Amino acid sequence: MVELSPGFTLIDGQPCTELNVRDRGLAYGDGLFETLRVAQGRIPLLEQHLARLSRGADRLHIACDTRLLAQELSQLALQLGGGILKLILTRGDGQRGYALPKPQRPRRIVQVAALPAYPPAHAEQGVCLYPCATRLGQQPLLAGIKHLNRLEQVLARAEWDDPAYAEGLVCDQQGAPVECTVSNLFLRYQGGWLTPALDQCGVQGVMRDYLCTQLDAVGQPVGVRPVTQAELLASSEVFCCNSVFGVWPVIGLGSQQWSIGPHTRQAQALAQQVLL
């Protein structure tokens, strides 16, 4: 059995560390990715990750064999035990130019990494958000999917280097809150949950979708619609979430402060149930 240390990489199912320089993922960001948490030899929310990958592949017209990927990822998870698997699906090699190669031979890349060492205080005591100046471009064709072009998030994350901020709030071109740099946003507003719509920009996170379903099941339905800055600031509770760290309560944004309320703790418990 091959030892799965951080940095171990499979390319098209074979251990490898070399990539053809003509790969369109490198040249154009022509592909998709998923970051999958591994816990006790299994991948929480694997079905949801692969469903999002499949939606993105349909949008980009890239062939995607989710059955093969499920088998490959599940086997790697058993060997790894705990950590992170990053799955990258590219269109494969191509010649110079944007025209799609014929035939297309998509390439799958899986990389092993350690689980990030997030401070426990982020989940227990909450986090402050940095108000990012970088704005998300609005492109409905790419909205929601996790494509490889993540330069907006790179620029947003480059705006701060202060450990007082664990995440950054990112808005659209009109200044409306959309998401955080690596997570989705939920706010408790007028007695109910809201999460920003992602039909123009942003990434539709699998933890976001999971929590929408689970909160609805416990009588806390989530409204999905555009959210204004005023609504965010008038909220009684705020949290951010993703499929790696679960739920972090948000306690600050600029001069605005929030308390960690019982509804956030409920969402946090629902996330932990599936991640452990």
Automatic annotation (TrEMBL):
Cofactor(s) required for function per UniProt: pyridoxal 5'-phosphate
A GO term for molecular function: 4-amino-4-deoxychorismate lyase activity
One GO biological process term: folic acid biosynthetic process
Pfam family, one: Aminotran_4
Pathway info: Cofactor biosynthesis; tetrahydrofolate biosynthesis; 4-aminobenzoate from chorismate: step 2/2
GO cellular component: cytosol
Keyword Transcription: no
Enzyme Commission code(s) on record: 4.1.3.38
PANTHER family: AMINO-ACID AMINOTRANSFERASE (PTHR42743), AMINODEOXYCHORISMATE LYASE (PTHR42743:SF2)
Protein known as: Aminodeoxychorismate lyase
